[in-house]
Amino acid sequence: MARVRLEHVTKTFGSGGGEVRAVDDVSLDIADHEFMILLGPSGCGKSTLLRMIAGLETPTSGDVFIDERRVNDVLPKERDVAMVFQSYALYPHKTVAANIEFPLKARGVGKAERAEQGRQAAAMLGLDTLLDRKPGQLSGGQRQRVALARAIVRHPAVFCMDEPLSNLDAKMRSETRAELVELHHRLNSTFVYVTHDQVEAMTMGTQVAVLSDGRLQQVGTPQEVYAAPATAFVAQFIGTPPMNVLPPGVLGGDSVRVGFRPEDARLVSPTAPDDGTTLPVTVRLVEQLGHEVLVFVDCDGARLVVRQPAGSGVPAIADPVRLSVGEGVRHHFDATTGERVG
């Protein structure tokens, strides 16, 4: 079992007037064998939260549990947790095999046994033919797989991963995402994965926890977070392009901000009747993406985007049109707090 539970965890740095609250009263329950994504912009506290699970940071207040065991005062090496860093953190003078086997060597495992376990971990990630190479002879994607194999060889209960794909190019990120999902299915472990990339969150996680300014905004499956964002922040952070959120008073009362996904709106003739579901807008940019078209428009000073299928009629830049947003596709957020109200 590898359940991870955080109860009212807070982490502050500094003191007095210079105190910074990196994590603010976060409670989170990560089930056994979950692939939990900690998602948010830079500086939101997600890496600090991960480091507290791994034991690299100590909570200022609150408790961290792994398998019902309170681990606040337990050393990282005794938590049965493996950490995969953004920077790979490989030993440049050691071979791939030696890098993978190093955690076992540190534990005093015999040479023959750790070599066999290292080969098994390498085989899981397609590194069989690279065992005699040094990290400097590998591509970025191969080095990241070595770092993953080094974590796998320990057979930890929990994998903590801090933006491990951010140094890879787009093609390699896509391939490695798929490898990580397959790896999660093969291993009987819990994954806690930090990223600012919402595409990674939507395609990899079984659960997503969205953070902003150190506070937990929402926890749910990727589809739940996408379909029913709990706050305007979540709505505008999840999705590519993100949800459009109108200024207060537009398509709703002054106390409400109305949001809608780019695919849920459509552009109609500027002479279309105003029946309460359309808004006058001006086209500012058109992006032809082959399979679809993104049309960016201005509405009362707000920049909005509409997703249209390829081949549909596309207005020209500076054209006045009307934006149609049906009642059934609208999301409503409190204009002051940003919390979902409908």
- Please bin the fraction of helical residues: 10-25%
Biggest β-sheet strands, sense, barrel? 6 strands, mixed
User: Which fold name corresponds to the CATH topology of the largest domain?
Assistant: Rossmann fold
User: How many strands in all?
Assistant: 18
The outline comes out as globular
Nearest-integer average pLDDT: 91
Strand content: 25-35%
Report the end-to-end length measured between terminal Cα atoms.
38 Å
The CATH architecture designation of the largest domain is 3-Layer(aba) Sandwich
If you compute it from the alpha carbons, what radius of gyration comes out, rounded to the nearest whole angstrom? 24 Å
Give your account of this protein's structure.
By secondary structure, the chain is α+β, with helices and mostly antiparallel strands. The protein has helices at 46-54, 96-106, 111-124, 140-152, 170-186, 198-204, 222-227, 232-237, and strands at residues 4-13, 20-30, 35-39, 61-66, 69-70, 81-84, 158-162, 190-195, 207-212, 215-220, 244-245, 256-260, 265-268, 278-288, 292-299, 302-309, 320-325, 331-334. The mean pLDDT is 91. 24% of the residues lie in helices and 32% in strands. Strands 6-7-8-3-9-10 form a 6-stranded mixed β-sheet, sandwiched between helices. The chain is globular. It has 8 helices and 18 strands. The protein has 2 domains: 4-236, P-loop containing nucleotide triphosphate hydrolases (Rossmann fold, 3-Layer(aba) Sandwich); 248-334, OB fold (Dihydrolipoamide Acetyltransferase, E2P) (Beta Barrel).
